[in-house]
Structures are given as C-alpha cells and as structure tokens.
Amino acid sequence: MIDLEAEVYGVELDRLGEIYYYSYIDGEKIKLNDYVIVQSENGFDVGRVVMGPKMMKFEEIGYEPKGIIRKLSEEDNEIVREIKQEAEKVAEYAKILVKELGLKMRILKVRYTFDKTKLIIYFGSDVRVDFREFVKILAKKYKVRIELKQVGIRDEVKIIGSLGLCGQQACCCRFLRDFSSIKMELAKTQQMMINTAKISGRCGKLLCCLKYENDFYKEVLKNVPSENTTIEYEGKPAKVVTVNIFLKEVTLQVIEENQPILVKIPFSYFNSDSKRKDGQE
C-alpha cells in the first residue's frame, strides 16, 4: 500500500482554533501569518497560515488536503474589512434580539464566510436554549444561511479575552489552541493552596498553567514519600509530617526514648544511593 503524502500548510479559520491542512502548488509565495482564501465546509473562507510548508502523509492528516485558492490581494483585504464591519453590525442586532426574545444566551462573536453564503454566530449559555425563532428572524432579515455554534465556558473566555492571575493575558487568549484536562492532583503535587478561587481562571476551571511545570515537580518528588504516610527511618517507624518541595526537605516525626521528635532530612536521602549509605535497601 502506497503512503500518499503532500506538501501542506496549516491554516486556522478562527484565531487559535483548529488547524486545517491545505496544499499549494502554483501562485504567489506563501509564508507564515499570510492570509489566504480556502474552501472549508462552510464555503469559501479566509484563514491565516500558521504552519508549513511541511511534507505530511494523508494518513497523518486524516483526509486528502484541498488546495489553497490564493493569497489575499489588496482587493480581497478590502472585502474582508467590509465583511467584518457587517458582521459587527449583525452581532449588535443579535444581542438586542436576544434580549427582546428573553433568551438566556451570550452572543460572543459573529462572522461571515468570505463568499457571504453563511453567517456563523458563536454563543455561550448555561442552559438549554430554544433559538428557533431567533434564527428565523435573522435569516429573514439577512437572507443567508445561519449556523449557531455554542461553545464551552473555556472557549468563551478564549473568545472574549481575559487577564490571568499572573497579570498577563490569559494563556487561552494568547497561545493555547487546545485545552488539556486539569485535575486537582496537579495543584496538590505543586503544593499550592487548595483554594479553588485562587487556582482557577476566569472560566471557573482550574488554571491551565498548572500543567506547565507538573512534570518538573513529579521528577523532583520521585521516590519522596507523601505527607501523612509512615516510612522506616534508621530502623524506626517515622511519620511524614511535611514535604517542602522548595527547600527539598522532608520533616519526619520519629519516636526517640518514648518522645516524638521532628527530624528534617533532604530529598537526596530517598535516592537509592543515599539509602545504601545508611544501610537500607
């Protein structure tokens, strides 16, 4: 079986959205951050080149890539500006219409495809919404196919923008294309205060940045016992009271002459070489 491959460019249709792969054979040279016209499932659309050129197998891509139609010309850029202005007006009207119909939905973004055959409305909502009347009124007014696309709370913040607790623009608005599963165990591993308000982002979910340094913490804590566990220290049972990853130090409670005492030992003690020096296997 022949593994078909092609030289492709990665194109995003929405900022930090899914990357679609397109080939490009003839025409003006394309480079990163150029805007191009492509054919998407919605029709002719405008996207930004974020990757390539790169040789990729069809099996890796998951489909046979279509070709980039052309790089945006000055005339195309003018059309794009006009389309964006029209979409902004639609968004303003849509927000008014939502209030008039009493719908519990938040209009986040509205965009036309380049050929203006489709109007895509992104919205957020905490409840199930019956938007049939909403779509009917918009379709009658703008005489175009309309797609309502509901997004989750993390994508909602990604669209409207936010500042992180660090004072910088939130990661989801700045560079994150995909969201990872963030669990409370990450905060525990990094010895952060288990106060969800302080380790959650604007979306109410745990901070995405908890995952960035987690592998480092796991490596540092490798072989180090967890708090509240009991281990053997110098032939005696000892309870792990605290594990201080910043000082790389473990505090043990050991019974000496029937009296509990606290002993601080470095992480290096739990390395196999250190244990052998203490006569432990």
N-C termini distance: 54 Å
Order of helices and strands: EEEEHEEHEEHEHHHHEEEEH
Q: Structural class of the secondary structure composition?
A: alpha+beta
Give the number of domains: 4
The major β-sheet equals:
6 strands, mixed
Q: Supply the number of helical segments.
A: 8
Q: How many strands appear in the DSSP assignment?
A: 13
What CATH calls the topology of the largest domain is GMP Synthetase, Chain A, domain 3
Low-confidence stretches: 276-281
Offer a quick outline of the entry.
This protein has 281 residues and is an alpha+beta fold. It has eight helices and 13 strands. The chain is elongated and about 90 Å long.
Protein model, in words:
A hairpin with a 2-residue loop joins β3 (35-40) and β4. The protein has helices at 58-61, 74-101, 132-142, 153-160, 171-174, 184-189, 214-220, 272-277; strands spanning 5-12, 19-23, 35-40, 43-57, 66-67, 70-71, 106-112, 118-124, 145-150, 230-233, 236-244, 249-256, 259-266. The strands form three sheets. A six-stranded mixed beta sheet has the order 5-2-1-4-3-6. It has a four-stranded antiparallel beta sheet with strand order 10-11-12-13, with no helix packed on it. Residues 276-281 have low confidence and may be disordered. It has 281 residues and is α+β, with helices and mostly antiparallel strands. 26% of the residues lie in helices and 31% in strands. The protein is built from eight helices and 13 strands. It has four domains: 5-72, no CATH class; 77-151, 2-Layer Sandwich (GMP Synthetase, Chain A, domain 3); 155-217, no CATH class; 230-277. The longest helix has 28 residues, at 74-101. The chain is elongated and about 90 Å long. The chain starts with a strand and ends with a helix.
